UniProtKB/TrEMBL annotation, chains A, B:
Catalysed transformations (reactions): 3 propionate 3-nitronate + 3 O2 + H2O = 3 3-oxopropanoate + 2 nitrate + nitrite + H2O2 + 3 H(+)
Protein name stated in the entry: Probable nitronate monooxygenase
Oxidoreductase is among the record's keywords: yes
Lineage of the organism: Bacteria, Bacillati, Bacillota, Bacilli, Bacillales
UniProt family annotation: Belongs to the nitronate monooxygenase family. NMO class I subfamily.
Biological processes, Gene Ontology terms: response to toxic substance
Function: Nitronate monooxygenase that uses molecular oxygen to catalyze the oxidative denitrification of alkyl nitronates. Acts on propionate 3-nitronate (P3N), the presumed physiological substrate. Probably functions in the detoxification of P3N, a metabolic poison produced by plants and fungi as a defense mechanism.
Listed CDD domains: NPD_like
Required co-factors: FMN
Entry keywords, A to Z: Detoxification, Flavoprotein, FMN, Monooxygenase, Nucleotide-binding, Oxidoreductase
Gene3D superfamilies: Aldolase class I
Amino acid sequence: MLMNLVTNLLKIEHPIIQAPMAGGITTSELVAAVSNSGGLGMIGAGYMTPDQIREQIREIKQLTSKPIGINLFVPNKFDANEDKAKSANQLLNPIREKLNLPPKNHMEHPSFHDALEKYAEQIKVVIEEKVPICSFTFGLPSKSVVAELKQHHMVLMGTATTVKEAIEVEKSGMDMVVAQGSEAGGHRGSFMNDEQDNLVGLMSLIPQVADNVTIPVIAAGGIMDGRGLAASICLGAQAVQMGTAFLTCIESGAHQVHKEAILHAFEDETIVTRSFSGKPARGLINPFILSMQDNEKDLPEFPVQNALTQDIRKASGLQNKKDYMSLWSGQSPRLSKNQRVKTLIESIISDVKNTIGKQ
Amino acid sequence: MLMNLVTNLLKIEHPIIQAPMAGGITTSELVAAVSNSGGLGMIGAGYMTPDQIREQIREIKQLTSKPIGINLFVPNKFDANEDKAKSANQLLNPIREKLNLPPKNHMEHPSFHDALEKYAEQIKVVIEEKVPICSFTFGLPSKSVVAELKQHHMVLMGTATTVKEAIEVEKSGMDMVVAQGSEAGGHRGSFMNDEQDNLVGLMSLIPQVADNVTIPVIAAGGIMDGRGLAASICLGAQAVQMGTAFLTCIESGAHQVHKEAILHAFEDETIVTRSFSGKPARGLINPFILSMQDNEKDLPEFPVQNALTQDIRKASGLQNKKDYMSLWSGQSPRLSKNQRVKTLIESIISDVKNTIGKQ
């Protein structure tokens, strides 16, 4: 059951993909450890500059000769509403005060044009550095980008949170689709609707997606161990993508406070919020989220809100205060461990073999 | 894998339980067909009078000699706020007008005392009629009730939506716990918190519950076929409870309009709403839910709101208008079929055997 089209296409031993978590979590050590352990390590490059990407790819190549992947954000048009940014700053300034940060009353953010340019540069680097696998979030690459990447024999993955999105992912020429369930931590990969109140759980999402696409399905959301991998395969997936399980690993670059928070959290202590970035994402409930909750619908869009909260997230991290950090987590924190990547992957594989063996 | 503690305790052939859907769905034909096919048929008796319960049990006994189960609602104290009821009626009257119903400006509902009395009578009937299995929703029976039912050798099940609730279910003396994931249609069984925005998906819920209780776990939510049963067992459950999959069966008493709506719905077209009953429940999005959405938090509690919307739901059904009916559904409507119960159960079992066989 563990060798299939996905492991063949990705040229990996185990159908385990490390989710490309953005924001410094996917250190070279993490990515290399996953690939060296037979899974697929992935760089969460959404926020990275082309130079940073090039540097990290080269660093990882010193650590592993196995395939690695990279994830990019597809830029979306957005409404840079000054009034919304002003209102958001009014909510954020009392938090800035608590962190000894100066108040802000302006809005600084990359323009859509800047984002498109950066994205084009990111793609150029990925091709030049010969990364064999590329996944996309928040949308789908254009036909010309897909054609270019295919010319370089890259394996492409898209992210979908509904059947409709999965069908679009297939139509766009992606080789496989990551079906992201409601359980997943971090940003929702939704690109056809931004709803927060009808997120579909994996038990429902995987079989319905699998019935409606012909490309392989990768399950993402709340999967932490062999039970989750075995269940995903029963439901019709061919591999899993795991974020939180790798985030708390020793090799991950997540802030220690973030790791500790997950290691001590319960399954019902996460929520989907737009308050950090302007896009819905699941994280542990903390004072930041609660303080923004009543005004969530009026917050600026991504990446404006993301730019507005940047100083707060950074200062909160530097001061080791979990109250104002984005503590992204899926819904299975009770299953998280602080262990080496190799231990995690080996235990998943041995558990799956036991699970199947017992039946 | 398919014979285990749950099938032994319940004395059934297959680990498949038909969810005890209240409100006329669990006809005697449905319950008997499930039990006759080797699963456990259950009466959704929450809203039924003791006499109706007695009558239905006797009717089912004419149709099957296999074990059946019954579900009761544990009464909760509630706040019968006149102002809230008035505001709710103001929202409901325009809908009443569309259905040619007279406006209402008063509140009529059973008192907590009435509910307790009815519950005591329901239990008496269940014992007298020797129903071997009883499950509870919205709370847990008292120690004295548990002791009495145990004296009659009944197998007891509680419902939990979080690990904390599952631990309480075990502590209360229940023999097994139904872990209800966010995917589930109909009422949330939550009894320790009423949140709607941190519902836990089954991929996360089952293993975390299984790790924290010693009684067997039954998975509920979005499970429709052999893939869901196999996955649930991989995750640590010993059986599944399926609602929507049975609701669209030929033998179910659900309104034809309700069945048709599910048969044509997509996975992202459901939402959790308090608007019909005052308690959160998942159903297909329709004009009724949308019209109440902005005022959801201010609606009266269960059972006040349930009593207030009764005329509307009834008239909408009689007029075959799905716009104002409660179209309860889980998140897997694309997997629903209009078929005989026997066909459904046989296909689940054969699919599970294939799934496991292939691995």
